[in-house]
Structure formats: structure tokens, C-alpha cells
Specification:
single chain, alpha+beta, Fructose-1,6-Bisphosphatase, Chain A, domain 1, D-Maltodextrin-Binding Protein, domain 2, 2 domains, eight-stranded mixed beta sheet
Length: 270
């Protein structure tokens, strides 16, 4: 890395801008939301607030960190000359946002290396839910926090007692396959939760609100910040086998439960 900025300083930037962007998103939600575009499928929607919020974040980062790169859900990539790249989801949980369900977030992370989750090193991240006011933050080696409260993943539980969060792809065919696996997993666990915002699902692992989370087809901006938060809270956050989390697969849980859950998912054909 060619830039000597500290992780703590990067985290403060991420947290501050996430709070500012969250206030903007919440205002637009209050004013009323409409779909302006669709991406990978008819149910993969984009709102004007998604684009406006990302443009706001991108502009703020350009002011504060002009040499850093940028990778956002709505506006694509920008080149880094510092070795750092900001990974941004302006509104994670857009369908929740569209329907007025108070479970969406602004997610901002900064990583070292190429903007590829298989190879990057996450340095700092912030996830903010404007509707609840909850702000999750973490820096590499600095721990994870909900506001000022340090987070620590609770001890593993038996799979039969585990509350598991997951999500589904936008592709109808892929959702069908994922639903079939959930149907087989459901009798083996305490229950399943599908809350619609991957970043907040990962943060829920960090807080102990769920025991584990898994999903396929996530984009880098869906998990860049929250995976660091869960990991810094003590969770195992991984991809398939020895791989890092990626679009292929992500799983987060207390270490012992992560081993058991991954084995179960593999046995079910995941």
C-alpha cells in the first residue's frame, strides 16, 4: 500500500459518510420511492434514491480520498493510484426500501489490493441502518462495534438450536434451487430467517441475533463491510472450502457451527 493512512482514520471516513448517506436515503424513503430501472431480472430493481445516494458517497470520497479507487453497485469502478478501493452499496436491501420495510442499509468498506473479494484485504467498514439508527463498524485488528458497544459472537450452538439467516438470488431458476435446499435444511435447525439485506444479516451474526448466515450470488458490495464486521466480532466468514467469500458462496457463524453448517449444506447439494 502506498498510502500511510491508518485503519482508524479510514474507518472514521466510512462511518461519517455512511451516516450522511443514510440520512439522505431515509429522506428519499419518506418522500416516496419509485423504480427507475431493473438490472439482472424483473425483480432486481433500482430506485432513484440508489443512484442519488451512491453519487453522494462517491463525491464525498473523491473530496476526502481522491487517489483511492471506487467500486459501487450503481456506478461501477474507478481506478486507484493509492492501492486502496472503496466498495459501496448505497442501499443494500433495495426491495425492503421500496416497500417501506425498515431493514435496509448503507454499506461502505475500504480494501487494499484489487477490488476482488477473493484477493483483497478489508481494512475498515461501516454498515448503517437509517431506520433503526444502528451503526455497525469494524477495522482490521481493531474489533467490531455496534455504536460504542464492542461485539463478540456468542459461543457456537448445536445445529438443531441454530437460527439461520439466508437470502435468495434474483434469478427465478436459482431461487428455486436455493429454496429446495432451505426446505431440506429447515427440519435440521431451530428456524430460518430471510430478512432481505445481506449486510445486516452478517451484522446479525456479529451481534448474536442469528447464529449463522449463508448465501450464494452476492456481489462484492453486498458483503465487503459486513464480512469484516462479523469476522472482527469473532465469526468465521468464508467461502466454499478454503476460499474467501465471493459470489460463489459466503457463510458466517461461530467457528464450530460454521464447520457443521457448511458440511450440512454440502450434504444437501449446495
Amino acid at each position: 500500500m502506498t498510502n500511510s493512512v491508518t485503519n482508524a482514520a479510514l474507518l472514521e471516513i466510512a462511518r461519517t459518510i455512511a451516516l450522511e448517506a443514510g440520512a439522505l436515503a431515509a429522506l428519499r424513503r419518506f418522500e416516496g420511492v419509485s423504480v427507475v430501472d431493473r438490472k439482472s431480472s424483473p425483480v432486481d430493481v433500482v430506485t432513484a434514491a440508489d443512484r442519488e445516494t451512491e453519487a453522494f458517497i462517491r463525491a464525498r470520497l473523491a473530496e476526502l480520498r481522491p487517489d483511492d479507487g471506487f467500486l459501487g453497485e450503481e456506478s461501477g469502478a474507478g481506478t486507484s493510484t493509492s492501492g486502496l478501493t472503496w466498495i459501496v452499496d448505497p442501499i443494500d436491501g433495495t426491495v425492503n426500501f421500496l416497500y417501506g420495510i425498515p431493514n435496509y442499509s448503507v454499506s461502505i468498506a475500504v480494501v487494499e489490493g484489487e477490488p476482488d473479494p477473493l484477493t483483497w484485504t478489508a481494512l475498515a467498514g461501516a454498515v448503517f441502518n437509517p431506520e433503526t439508527g444502528e451503526s455497525y463498524t469494524a477495522s482490521a485488528g481493531g474489533g467490531a462495534f455496534l455504536g460504542d458497544r464492542r461485539l463478540e459472537v456468542p459461543a457456537s450452538v448445536d445445529l438443531s438450536q441454530a437460527l439461520i439467516a439466508t437470502g435468495f438470488a434474483y434469478s427465478a431458476e436459482e431461487r428455486g434451487r436455493q429454496g429446495a435446499i432451505v426446505a431440506q435444511l429447515l427440519p435440521e435447525v431451530r428456524d430460518i430467517r430471510r430478512m432481505g439485506t445481506s449486510s445486516l444479516d452478517l451484522c446479525a451474526v456479529a451481534t448474536g441475533r442469528v447464529n449463522a448466515y449463508y448465501e450464494w450470488t452476492l456481489s462484492p458490495w453486498d458483503h465487503a463491510a459486513a464480512a469484516l464486521i462479523a469476522r472482527e466480532a469473532g465469526a468465521t466468514v468464508k467461502g466454499r472450502a478454503d476460499a474467501a467469500p465471493s459470489r460463489d458462496f459466503i457463510l458466517a457463524a461461530a467457528p464450530e457451527l460454521a464447520i457443521v453448517l457448511e458440511a450440512k449444506l454440502l450434504a444437501l447439494g449446495a
